[in-house]
Every structure is written in C-alpha cells, then in structure tokens.
Design goal:
The protein is an alpha/beta fold. The protein is 36% helix and 14% strand. It has 2 domains: 6-102 and 296-314, 3-Layer(aba) Sandwich (Rossmann fold); 104-287, NAD(P)-binding Rossmann-like Domain (Rossmann fold, 3-Layer(aba) Sandwich).
Amino acid sequence: MSAKPKVIITRKIPAACEAEAQQRFDAVINRDDVPLSTEQLKEALRDADGLLPTVTDKVTVDVLATSPLRARIIANFGVGFNNIDIEAARRLGLTVTNTPDVLTDDTADIAMTLLLMIGRRAGEGERHVRNREWTGWRPTHMLGAKVSGKTLGLIGFGRIAKAVARRAHHGFGMRIIFSDPFPPKPEEAKALGAEQRGTAEEVLREADFISLHCPATPETRHLINAERLKLMRKDAFLINTARGDVVDEAALIAALKSKTIAGAGLDVFEKEPAVGPELLSMENVVLLPHLGSATLETRVAMGMRAIENLTLFFNGQPVRDRVV
C-alpha cells in the first residue's frame, strides 16, 4: 500500500474535519492557530503534496516561486480565493479549489443581520443598555429606519445574493433590484421579486439598502469608491459581506463622517484584521469579525468539502470545485 499523501493544514479547523483529514492523509495541522509566515508557507509547499490554507493565508507569487515545489494542489478553505495568486498557480500547473455552496445560507443570514442591525440601530442600542445610559422608553428615542417594504439593491446576483433576496423579499416584503454582468434567467429573478438594472450606478441611486455580493478581483477592487458613494441616497445604508477591498475604506469613512450615507454594516474590511480606528468610534456603523460562514455546521461542511477535493485529486479523479 502506498503512503498517504502529505497535506499541511495551515490553521485549526473543526475537530470532525481534522479527524477526517488525518484518516485520509498524512495530515499536519498548525496547532498554534496563528497565520503561517511567508517562509513557513514556502516550506509547506516544498514539504507536502497538498496545502489546505484558509482565506487569510497569502499564497502570493513569491510563496509559489519556492523550489523545489512538491505540492500539486491547494484546496482553499473558503469560497473566496483572492488570497492565492491564481495566475501564478496556473503557470506552475497547480490545481486550486475552493468551497462554494455550503456557506450560502449563513452568509446571507449575516447580511440580513447587518441590514437589520444598522437600519434599526441595534448595535448602538445594545451599547446604550450595556453602558447604563438608557433611562427608559420615550417616543423619540433612537429612531431608526424601517426595513419592511424598503428597496434592497444587490451588487452582484450570485448564490449568496439570491439567498439574501429570498429572505428580504419573502420575509420582509422588500423590493429587490440588482446589477450583475451575468444575470439570471428572467423567471428566476421574478421568483425572487428581483428587477435587473443596467449598471451598479443605477442600483446605488435607487436603493434604501445596498448589499455587496461580488468577488474580489482586480476589476472589483474599490468598486465602491468616493464617486459611487456620492450616488447613494443620504438615508441609505451600505452592507458588505463580500470582500473588504471591494470598498475603499477611506472613502467610506469620509462618507460616513460627512453623512453622505446614513450608515454601514461591515463583516469584512480592506486591511483585515486591521479596522480603521475611525470606524471603531462611529455609532452609525455595525462591525462584525468576518462571521459570514461562522456556524459549526457550515465550517464543518467547508472543511469536508476541501477534504473531498483533495481526496478526488489524489485518487486521480476530477475535483469538484476547481478554480484552476
């Protein structure tokens, strides 16, 4: 019997996934649960047949240039893969996979959580109570924005955006508008109560709430910049559960300070895990620590999906979630 392929797992993952990985592979797990350095990532690629990194591991062109390169597959733990230099991996003949589908519902739930929290000032209100500043109910205290029946604009209309549309339209009676370069069939949009707009700019001008659902690519970096923020209504809110660099964080801070927009709900940040100090002091922002897929069920499913991709690859079968 041939030796099991060696796989290096860069962070602690759910126990069920670790046990499965150790059963199938010669699995080495980073028990310290801190990001590997550039040199440690290079060493991993030299030492193992496969790498199971997370979206926080920067597998750059420099990392991939290590020699000799033993690894043949990078099975990313996450639906996003902008942490990996895809073109460099392609040139080297590396297979790269991700973990789509399994985190759709949880991320959609977080988008709706942020929407409700920022619209109804829930984060601010919770701090108000904890700080013992609440003196009792009164008619004009902490008035927020009604959510039900409002217009939700979606930038991008993939799996997660559709799940958000379903919750918002069927659960809260929201009117849905969206822009996407690859729109769904008209009947699919109609079933979600969604109306297409020709450009992101049209969505930004019209919606009460804007939720971002586009991948992080060179083309989408700073998609939401100062110019586009000015297109939004002054009583509108921005929600980002996509990727941090889709938003120009400095421009967003300026827009929030000047009341160009009413508020923002953020689960991701441009220089994550660093968060702009000015954001931390603002009451018209809700900040979450990248919780989009953070349920036990989904993180287990993500790990198992990555392990499945590795298993298929090492068995010489087509992988399920090939990026390159």
